[in-house]
TrEMBL record, chains A, B:
Positions of the Aminotransferase class I/classII large domain: 51-385
Co-factor(s): pyridoxal 5'-phosphate
Keywords for this protein: Aminotransferase, Pyridoxal phosphate, Transferase
Domain of life assignment: Bacteria
Presence of the UniProt keyword Membrane in the record: no
Protein name in UniProt: Aminotransferase
Organism: Pullulanibacillus camelliae
Keyword Metal-binding: no
InterPro entries found in the cross-reference section: Aminotransferase_I/II_large, Class-I_PLP-dep_aminotransf, PyrdxlP-dep_Trfase, PyrdxlP-dep_Trfase_major, PyrdxlP-dep_Trfase_small
Subunit architecture: Homodimer.
SUPFAM superfamilies (alphabetical): PLP-dependent transferases
One Gene Ontology term of the molecular function aspect: transaminase activity
Family stated for the protein in its record: Belongs to the class-I pyridoxal-phosphate-dependent aminotransferase family.
Amino acid sequence: MFADKLSTRTHFVGTSEIREVLKVTEKPEVISFAGGLPAPELFPVEDIKVACDAILTESGVEALQYSTTEGYTPLRQAIVTRLKKMGIDTTVDHLLMISGSQQGLDLTGKLLLNEQDTVICESPTYLAAINAFKVYNASFVEVETDEDGMNMEKLEKALQTNPQAKFIYTIPDFQNPTGRTLSLSRRKKMVALANQYNVLIVEDNPYGAIRFAGEPLPPIKHFDTEERVIYLSTFSKIFSPGLRLGWICAHEDFIKQYVAFKQAADLHTDSFAQRITAKYIELFDLDAHIEKIKAVYHHRRQTMIDCIDRFFPKQVTHSSPEGGLFIWVELPESVNSREVFEVCIQNDVAFVPGQAFFPNLKKENTFRLNYSNMPDRKIIEGMRRLGQVLHSFLNSNVANF
Amino acid sequence: MFADKLSTRTHFVGTSEIREVLKVTEKPEVISFAGGLPAPELFPVEDIKVACDAILTESGVEALQYSTTEGYTPLRQAIVTRLKKMGIDTTVDHLLMISGSQQGLDLTGKLLLNEQDTVICESPTYLAAINAFKVYNASFVEVETDEDGMNMEKLEKALQTNPQAKFIYTIPDFQNPTGRTLSLSRRKKMVALANQYNVLIVEDNPYGAIRFAGEPLPPIKHFDTEERVIYLSTFSKIFSPGLRLGWICAHEDFIKQYVAFKQAADLHTDSFAQRITAKYIELFDLDAHIEKIKAVYHHRRQTMIDCIDRFFPKQVTHSSPEGGLFIWVELPESVNSREVFEVCIQNDVAFVPGQAFFPNLKKENTFRLNYSNMPDRKIIEGMRRLGQVLHSFLNSNVANF
């Protein structure tokens, strides 16, 4: 209907395959490791009730009125304080509040990408970032990753063969989908390469605060000597995703341009949600809340890895994240994870087949598991079912040879 | 800085002139008729407190978690009920919740506009719609308007000379900036012309519910025989703009595409804000609340028009809105409203010079007045100052000849 009226963008952005996957997993009997949802029982509902009440009593009118595109200054000030502790020394003038960090990806596409411009990214990478940049008809150059994140030699080759690349898109901490973290030396090297080859870095960091093992690492932006790093983050994983609150931290000239595009896109981010979050940070202890999240996720990650050891065939390998929400699984190359998925769904267990996380390559033998959203009991039962299906696939594959 | 990294879109969307205007008007001593803000003292703060408390008690976890891109179904159901009363017979499958109706403009640009595609619009039109479509490098064809809205003969000529035009963008009710309303016969005619010339209509209706005089008219979408009308509206003017809640009502095929773009843009609209609004509609009487808004705006509109009669030179003409937030003023052609603005600011009174509302034509002798955001006392004092400045301009202009 009216197909002649649609823009060419509609060719790049179909209804995503992942949405169809998630729909299948919505039946209550399915144990789903597919989504990337925080543990809902940890949301500080009672404290948020106190914060809401305080905001509506003290500044209800301002919370409900139009406000500035840049965002609520006390909240931006609180973010500045948090960023300083992480090693990013910045000011409110370098911060724009956005409707979740996903909007940061869309606005970044708008700000930087012309048709057919190249984005250099990890292989695999966050599928909704692929979609956000595809809206602007971007091309992707994937760089191999290992347990320490993006391979710097391969990155340098990619920069040499793609001198017009606009930016490197990276999720350095507990990456989606792999759970892997970029090592300290590679962080420094990435900045050095960006300077040398005159390319920007878009550092997407939704999970960095959820480190439950190993040593904390400073963000890439900590090493940024030429203000080339555009840093995106969010309250979704440490507070509430439903409120849709993220931020961009970047050079002031970029922020001014982002503000113009943000204003054309949705005027400003929900004022009430911004004030609730600022009030919560003022009245309660966000860091203590994050400690609770970490403890629960650490435990669930361990339960899931124990289950992999116990239930999965030995040929299956996996990442060992020190934080975040995801484990990445690789099957022998002969196995297609979409076929595994079809059988799993019949056994009421789900994950996300890995293909969607590769903009070009489509490695068929991978999948992503989420452990944050599920109690132990269900993790164990779901992984048992998944293990059975994997055994059946690996045996039948063995039998074929 | 990094100018070589920016997309060509940045050429079309600078920081808008209007933002600079609004910054000047932010000083507390300025009486500003510049913004388009609802009367803040009417926000139902205490009732919203009750709704928040109920949501956090009954479904706090769901309100704070990720949710579906389409939006909260009970809220969409409530909108369906409201639309039915206005003459739009639809279902939740034809509705997408968005982050304010401004996002509807951005998503519409994304969905429909290729580079240099033509948008047919009223002359003048909403300046943030111009900016939203300019992001996608649209061209604009302006159609003359009078007290009954867009001129249909001129519209037909525009359709004939621009057969590739993608859509007609119109604000039929109490238009921004003119306050004018498209007549009943022209609504029917616009649909007939859209059918005949195979073009879509984007009906932007943020103000329609705020009718305080004259007879209600059905939306253009009421007359839509071929599902060509994409209808945008919002809770900003009837409930709270700070919560950033709007909706798109359109053919299901369009909604599916909008959902894909919305998901890439910001995943979904704030779940908590959606549930607060649905709960408010369930517990309280939104229509009774709108009646209060209408009574106040009707009174303020009358105060402002009385002041025009009393303080303005007789050569100055103005629109006579039966609803909404704005009055449009035309000066003799020799007077430039930007120069008037400069003098007004020195006298601590402000408006928006009309130029920004014309994508191409830039009529210099017009400006927009807002009456919703200001108590009587301030309206009278501000209009007195503005009248003085206009008299000085018209006398000096007379003296020049």
